[in-house]
């Protein structure tokens, strides 16, 4: 010792943060998606220093950067799906920097979804017959080459109608 003395300090601690941020992504509507605007919500695992970079790439199609707005951990944006967007799987890629400068690229949930912009063909063999108590019985086969998950049935009291004139009665 050279003769320099000091009181005992209360102590200090140092916290090293080497953990990169990650993201969980949710989309609305849920997969499979049709043509239209896809709402994207990105929730980061920690506060980000700036807007994250998010890219949406349909398989075999051009990547589309998603402009994100928000702050901290919560960010949102939109992806435009058109009738010419390739059908099939699409993936998100992500990159962000947290407030400590760590760069992260991991997506923990919602990294992919399915695009389906091809409408099914017309129903096969649609028939209607009068049932009991004034009911109408409908029967049909699936569209050719399609295993449909559901059908929506509408009714109208008008003879010349558009879908806007109809009321959904089942799906």
Architecture blueprint of SSEs:
Blueprint (H helix, E strand, L loop, with lengths): L21 E7 L7 E9 L8 E6 L5 E3 L2 E3 L2 E8 L6 E10 L5 E2 L1 E4 L2 E4 L8 E7 L5 E6 L11 E3 L11 E4 L1
Parallel strand pairs: 1-9
Antiparallel strand pairs: 1-2, 2-6, 3-4, 3-7, 5-6, 7-8, 7-10, 11-12, 13-14
Compact description:
The chain has 171 residues and is mostly beta strands. 0% of the residues lie in helices and 44% in strands.
Please describe what this structure looks like.
The protein has 171 residues and is mainly beta. Helices cover 0% and strands 44% of the residues. The protein contains no helices and 14 strands. It has strands at residues 22-28, 36-44, 53-58, 64-66, 69-71, 74-81, 88-97, 103-104, 106-109, 112-115, 124-130, 136-141, 153-155, 167-170. The strands form 4 sheets. A 5-stranded mixed sheet has the order 5-6-2-1-9, with no helix packed on it. The protein is elongated. The model has no long low-confidence stretch (mean pLDDT 86).
């Amino acid at each position: 010792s050279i003769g320099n003395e000091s009181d005992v300090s209360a102590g200090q601690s140092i916290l090293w943060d080497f953990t990169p941020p990650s993201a969980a992504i949710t989309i609305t509507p849920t997969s499979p998606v049709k043509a239209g605007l896809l709402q994207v919500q990105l929730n980061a695992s920690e506060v980000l220093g700036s807007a994250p970079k998010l890219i949406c790439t349909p398989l075999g199609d051009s990547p589309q950067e998603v402009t994100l707005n928000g702050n901290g951990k919560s960010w949102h944006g939109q992806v435009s799906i058109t009738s010419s967007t390739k059908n099939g799987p699409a993936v998100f890629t992500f990159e962000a920097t947290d407030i400590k400068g760590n760069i992260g690229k991991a997506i923990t949930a919602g990294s992919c979804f399915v695009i389906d912009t091809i409408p099914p063909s017309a129903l096969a063999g649609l028939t209607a017959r009068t049932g009991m108590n004034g009911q109408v019985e409908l029967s049909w086969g699936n569209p050719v080459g399609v295993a449909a998950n559901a059908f929506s049935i509408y009714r109208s009291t008008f003879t010349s109608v558009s879908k806007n004139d109809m009321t959904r009665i089942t799906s």
